[in-house]
User: Fold these one by one.
Assistant:
Number 1:
Amino acid sequence: MQAVRSILVVLDPEHAHSRALTRAKLIAGVTGARLHLLMCDKKQDHSALLSLLSSQLHDDGYDNVTHEQKWKDSLHQSIIHVQQAEGCELVIKEHRPDNPLRKALLTPSDWKLLRECPCAVLMVKSECPWTGGVILAAVDVGNQDEAHRLLHASIIDHGYDIASLAKGQLHVISAHPSPMLSASDPVYQLTETIEKRYREACTAFQAEFDITDDRLHIAEGPADVLIPYTEKKLDAVVTIVGTVARTGISGALIGNTAEVVLDALEGDVLVLKSEEATAHLAELARG
């Protein structure tokens, strides 16, 4: 988060009060990042509002503020186009449910943005202030390949950065699978051996990232259930999740687990992608 020098803030034409801008100001106030305000609307001119917001931000001490209105085929494509053109390392967008029956669900355009945007995306789902709150980082400690190790480091680094700027506490959740009698590896046939292996992996993880026992939450079961459960239990204000998308996967989609988790979480969600996925998506965006 400290390395973020430019933030793309997606504003909603229908809502003057922007939770996304509130979060962006908090981050930029600490990092000094440039704020680029974006209004995506092909029907109405918002230049007066954008100028007013920029002026107010300057008055509040944010010296590096730019803005534009853009529309390119669809909402998520408009955002990604500007993100690439401006070189922004973080996109912040508010999610407002458009249908009471789907209150917890993200809209299709939000999903496409999370799946296809080459940089980190912060989806603002709550009005709850970050200050003094719990930041929850979700990792898969049992996955030790290089792509996951790098992604875990990024998730924890972002977690510490947000905890620092919000004067909050970083907690980590890692779910391990339930035993499967059909598993080819005997380790995964017994709860005791699975948990032992995960505990050993967690000990190394804790030493590497300086995570104390009271802030590490290990549980057996599916991540898409345990992560929202832990978020609610800790009353976390923001949850950080990552995805490793392999090249060759169409559109480098976020996995199903991450999708279910994102819908179930009540607070803000920061989605990070592996370096491989970022490079692949940037290539697709340029094409």
Note: The longest helix spans residues 146-165.
Number 2:
Amino acid sequence: MSKYLETKIDNFKLKFAEKENIPHILAFIQGMAKYEKLEHEFSATETLLEKYLFGEEKAAEVILGYYEEKPVAMALFFKNFSTFLSKPGIYLEDLFVIEEMRGRGLGKAILTFLAEYTRERNFGRLEWSVLDWNKPAVDFYRSIGAVPMTGWTIQRLTGKALEDL
């Protein structure tokens, strides 16, 4: 059995990341921080990724997308829980495709896999956030049937506010 998961796109395959993929994961996260103009918030390290993606305190999973055997995309996700549905779900923290590979359907292939993964486990939903200024992403998400959660805003505590509370 292949370590890759087939997609409907020629020469594009997915696989669950392994510890040796940490440098690629870190590079994709850096690329996302740059794209989102959030490099000032970037503090990820290989050590932290190893601890939380592959260690005893595993907090998330990563799927890598390979085009012609070269890593070109990443999805980092984790399980969450809906009290209203009384079911777990998947929260997609990051979906990233390198710039030269965008517009080829790779992001849709990854989301299709995650939707199947969600349904196969009888989870209740697949959800994620998108920056409101990222019109290409917003338009893409609308085209696949995703809907914004009107009336909901994300709240976050981090850094000093988290410590103070």
Note: Residues 89 and 123 are 5 Å apart (CA to CA).
